[in-house]
Every structure is written in C-alpha cells, then in structure tokens.
Write a structure and sequence with these properties.
CATH topology of the largest domain: Antithrombin, Chain I, domain 2
Order of helices and strands: HEHHHEHEHEEEEEHHEEHEEEEE
Structural class: alpha+beta
Helix content: 10-25%
CATH superfamily of the largest domain: Antithrombin, subunit I, domain 2
Oligomer: single chain
Strand content: 25-35%
Distance between the termini: 40 Å
Number of domains: 2
C-alpha cells in the first residue's frame, strides 16, 4: 500500500510541479480492493499486482484487507477514524451474483441501485459521502458520465489530537517562503520537547504523534539550498524507509504553519503509467479513478478526509546532539501514518499553507495541556 501510494504521489508531483497535492494511499488501496471483488481475468490480475497480492489468492487478499480495516478501527481516545465503502449500480446493469455478497462480507459495503441519468442520483451519492466523512466532503460528484454503470466508493475520515499540543498563545505570524520569490505572513505554531526526528543530507524530518502514539504526522522539510519541487518526484519506498530508519529521539523546537488544503485528483492516467488499467467489466471497458481529499492542521490536531471513486462505464547516521530548531517556513511534505503497519492514510505536498479554504469546525472536547516549556517563548524568531 505504501509503495503504491509513494509511486502514485511521485508521478502526480512530476506531472503537476509546484502545486499543493494530497493523496490518500489508504483510500486508494481500499478502492482497488473493492475493484478486486468486482473484476475477473486480466483486470483482477492487474489489481492484485497493484495491491501486492498473488493473483490466484484473491480470498486471502480480501481477508488481509479486512484485517487491516479492523486494525485501523481499534480504539484510541484521541483519534477518531471511520472507514466506509459503497457500491452503486445503474438500474439496468446486472452485476455478477457474487459481487455484492463479497463486498458486504469483507468491506461492510452498502449496495444500492440508482438511475444514474436522474439528477437525484448525484445528490444521493454526495449525501452518502458527506455522512461517511462527517461533513468534511459535502460534494464529491458533480456529474456522471452518461455511460456510467457502476461506482465503487471508499470514504475515510480521521480526527487526531496531538499527543503534545501546540499552545495557541505561542502562535505568531511569521514569513512563509513559498516557491520562487513568493512570501507572505502566516500563522506559525510553536512547541518544544522530545520528538523523533531525522536528518538525511539536504532533508530533515520530524514525527508528531497523535493520542497514544500509534498515529503520527511526519513532516519532511528540504533544506533552503534544495526544494520540495525537486524532492517530491523522487519519492519511493527505499527513500521513505531510509528516513523512517533514521528517526531518533531528540529535544528541541518545532515551528509549523497551520495549514489547510483540498484537492480533487483524477488518478486514472497516473495509474495507467504505473501499469494499472482501470477496467471493471469482462470486456475490458475503460473506467476511471478519482479522489477528493481535505486536510486541516491546527494547534489542537488534524482533521482529514478522503473519498475515492472507481467508475465503470459501459463498453466495458545521527549527528552530535544539540537542541534542534526546525522552522517549517517553506514548502514541505507531510504524511499521516499508522506506526503499527507503516501504512499511510494521507501524503501531501504543501507549497501554500493557506490552501483553498478549509474545514473550520474545531475538534471538540479537548483541553490542551499546560504550555510548552518557557524557553520557547524567548525564541528570537517569535
């Protein structure tokens, strides 16, 4: 899952350099797994390879995905996570008899039949996505191809409260140095303490845990002499794994911008570049795969949501210790990951933390701990 997410993200970054990007590798994998339950022949083989499973062991792949889903939903009082799946078929489209029972069994998928040619179908699908993402994604589908006959949708919604919150009194407007000569004042949060972090040549990173520590956000910051635009297209499993291996406990200060972002991405062509053709009917009719994401990060924590749609159409070594000071005042990467499995829920590139308008609902029922150590307040940069 992580490998596919990194390869897909690197392709997106190569095709759209210098713009905010956000991908949900977990949402992508879950939707491909739904497709695995609705395909056969060469299409099933392609989806199996993308998910990293043996073509002939589809049952084991479903069982593994179901176990992964159960693991994600294990309770953490500071992290709320929901997963939902659905299948929508056009009223005159006959699915194979085993499809609906398979997706219900392994993914608890809701199955519905709609007249895709009626405007009310779009409203019904959007209402399901809105409910599944806690209102974070109120509209995902704006129109349907008149040839559409089957939609497979996975939704993911997470609210995580920092294990160590950023105290609001320390947030100040500082300069964010975006790409080129663009710069602007932006609210920057501050905290100090013990964190897992790494340095690797011209890159440094830090892990910011949520709740009891299973979930965390990784921030990856290129040096001032390099750039995110150069780094993002080079992401891959080997590089990412090397960064994780180099994480070491360190003490210091983190300055991080509040940020919010949203994206709507057609992943079809990128996945085809990776050798995965989205085709869901026995005759190999081309389809498409779309993803919509929203992320907001503030002093209390993170809220993120993703909806991924598959559409079928007819036709078928650590340095010597000293207190670190990491100031994220230029484009950076972020990832939300599960430390148990190493799987990513979200992976993004932030060139402009102002985003395109965010999710303003705050995380309720959380009182930040007393302020971070007093020395942070004396930092000259604040």
């Amino acid at each position: 899952m992580t490998r596919l997410g990194l390869e897909t993200f690197a392709r997106l970054a190569r095709n759209e350099p210098g713009v905010n990007l956000c991908l949900s590798p977990a949402g992508l994998a879950q939707t491909l797994a739904l497709g695995l339950g609705a395909t056969r022949g060469s299409d099933r083989a392609a989806l199996s390879r993308a998910l990293g499973v043996e073509t002939g062991d589809v049952e084991a792949a479903h069982a593994a995905m179901a176990a992964w889903r159960r693991s994600l939903l294990e309770p953490d009082p500071s992290v709320d996570l929901t997963l939902a799946c659905s299948l929508w078929s056009h009223i005159d489209f006959d699915l194979e008899p085993a499809v609906v029972p398979t997706l219900r069994r392994w993914y608890d998928a809701q199955a519905s039949r709609l007249n895709f040619l009626e405007p009310s179908a779009i409203q019904t699908i959007n209402e399901w996505v809105r409910d599944a993402t806690g209102g974070a994604l109120p509209e995902v589908v704006q129109s349907l191809d008149p040839r559409a006959r089957l939609l497979l949708i996975s939704a993911l919604h997470v609210r995580g409260r920092w294990k160590q919150a950023f105290h609001p009194d320390l947030t100040r407007d500082l300069t964010f140095y975006a790409s080129g000569d663009t710069r602007f004042p932006h609210p920057m949060m501050a905290a100090s303490g013990d964190y897992l972090r790494f340095q690797d040549g011209g890159v440094e990173g830090i892990a910011l845990p949520y709740g009891e520590g299973r979930w965390r956000m990784l921030i990856v910051l290129p040096s001032r002499e390099s750039s995110l635009q150069d780094l993002a297209p080079l992401l891959g499993q080997d590089r990412w794994s090397r960064w994780l291996r180099r994480l070491r406990k360190d003490r210091g200060t983190i300055i991080l911008p509040r940020f919010q972002m949203g994206s709507s991405t057609d992943l079809t062509s990128v996945l085809r570049e990776l050798g995965l053709s989205i085709a869901l009917d026995p005759d190999g009719a081309a389809g498409s795969l779309l993803q919509r994401t929203r992320v907001e990060v503030d002093e209390q924590g993170t809220r993120a949501a993703a909806a991924t749609l598959m559409v079928q159409v007819v036709a078928w070594p650590p340095p010597k210790w000293q207190p670190f000071h990491m100031q994220v005042d230029r484009p950076f990467l972020f990832a939300i990951e599960d430390t148990y499995s190493g799987d990513m829920l979200f992976l993004g590139a932030v060139y402009d933390p102002r985003g395109v308008g965010g999710i303003r609902e705050s995380i309720q029922g959380f009182v930040p701990p007393p302020g971070t150590p007093p020395d942070i307040a004396r930092l000259s940069s604040l």
